Amino acid sequence: MSILHLFDSGFRRRNEDHFAAIVRVAMDDGVISEEEKGFLDRLANNLDISESNYKKILKDFKSHDINPPLSYNRRLERLYDLARMVYVDHIKGEQEEILLRKIAIGLGFSHENVNYVVGKALSLVNDHVDLDTFIYEIKKNMNR
Predict the structure, then answer these.
(1) Residues 34-71, buried b or exposed e (16+ Cβ, 10 A)?
(2) Per-residue DSSP letters for 87-99?
(3) Which residue, 19, 28, 10, 7, is CA-closest to 88?
(4) Residue 111: which domain range?
(5) pLDDT by residue for the chain (144 residues), tens digit each?
(6) Which 3 state secondary structure label does DSSP give 66?
(7) How many distinct helices (H) and strands (E) make up the chain?
(8) How many domains, the chain?
(9) Which of 36, 49, 116, 125 is the right S-S partner for 83, CB 3.0 to 4.6 Å?
(10) Which of 82, 25, 83 is nearest to 57 (CA)?
């Protein structure tokens, strides 16, 4: 087996785990809405998830770990995706924040700043900012 094949295999697994984490958020209410389905379809395509793996993940999403990315920017990218999914799912109030705090901690954000990060993430997603703005705004306020 070549090194390239090993790298490709690990990369695919991380993408599948990330996708499964987002499916977990979408399934929080037990149903995947039309908007969520569209988002999942687009995300699966962007993450290069095969149709057969897509179906397997939908059926057994809890078997995938939430693997925290090593890079802070990657964590913010995943948080952005997850916050958008929660927003599309119309989960509001305390339930929304509890769910995202759990996932944010799983993604590697510290207990000390998770409340700020999740609150800011939900606010930015509510304002429909793009990924670059999302990352910039969270980092800007973390450096104070």
Answers:
(1) eebeebbeebbeebebeeebbebbbeebeebebbebee
(2) HHTT--HHHHHHH
(3) 28
(4) 3-142
(5) 444 343 455 667 778 887 887 787 777 778 777 777 877 888 888 788 999 999 999 888 877 766 677 899 988 988 898 788 777 656 566 766 777 787 788 788 889 999 999 989 989 999 999 999 999 999 987 754
(6) coil
(7) 7, 0
(8) 1
(9) 125
(10) 25
Indicate the residue type of 13.
R
Return the C-alpha torsion angle 81, 87, 90, 93, nearest 10. Answer: 110
Neighbours of 30 (CB within 10 A): 5
